[in-house]
Recover the amino acids of this structure.
């Protein structure tokens, strides 16, 4: 089976000489659920940020669906990110956060609202649709971030967050596609 994500000999050194990622190579196949474990500061988030296009490698290649995306910006990559600190938009409601990507992609308002409602139902937050992120628990924020990352049904999704606050059932049911 062809890999949908390939990280090929990727290296990243930050200013000051911190070698955050050192010659990492791995491949993820369709349907595979990969978890990267390692001590704090070992380069997990930096690796995933390079997959998402939020950092660029000094050496090596990122290949998504057979296409070299190493130099492409985030919005031109077929991948969604769920950030370690969730990065929810504080001024938007839960529903608006989840639907943001659909709106940007030009989906019709009624269709987007239906998708968002389905997502809210899946993460069991229908009753919190109009709240702002500051009015949520950490676990609820995490589920909103997960729904926002998955709602566009892209072929790959990276999460730099531990999902320990999402119940196993809500994570499983979030595998919409
Ligand atoms: N923008 C940056 N500038 C300089 N150094 C950075 C930057 N981002 C990360 N680093 C450093 O790179 C190394 C890897 O960081 P990274 O965030 O990838 O670790 P991590 O494995 O995700 O850690 P954690 O489990 O704590 O989230 C760390 O030493 C960190 O301090
Ligand atoms: Mg991290």
């Amino acid at each position: 089976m062809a890999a949908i994500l390939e990280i090929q000999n990727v290296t990243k050194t930050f200013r000051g000489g911190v070698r955050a990622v050192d010659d990492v190579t791995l491949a993820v196949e369709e349907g595979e659920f990969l978890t990267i474990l390692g001590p704090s500061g070992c380069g997990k988030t930096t690796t995933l940020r390079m997959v998402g296009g939020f950092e660029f490698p000094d050496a090596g290649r990122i290949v998504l669906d057979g296409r070299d995306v190493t130099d492409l910006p985030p919005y031109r990559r077929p991948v969604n990110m769920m950030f370690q600190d969730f990065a929810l938009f504080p001024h938007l409601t839960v529903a608006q956060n989840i639907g943001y990507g659909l709106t940007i992609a030009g989906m019709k308002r009624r269709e987007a609202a239906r998708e968002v409602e389905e997502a809210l139902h899946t993460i069991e937050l229908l009753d919190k649709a109009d709240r702002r992120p500051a009015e949520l628990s950490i676990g609820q924020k995490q589920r909103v971030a997960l729904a926002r990352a998955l709602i566009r049904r892209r072929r790959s999704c990276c999460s730099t967050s531990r999902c320990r606050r999402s119940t196993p059932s809500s994570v499983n049911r979030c595998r919409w596609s």
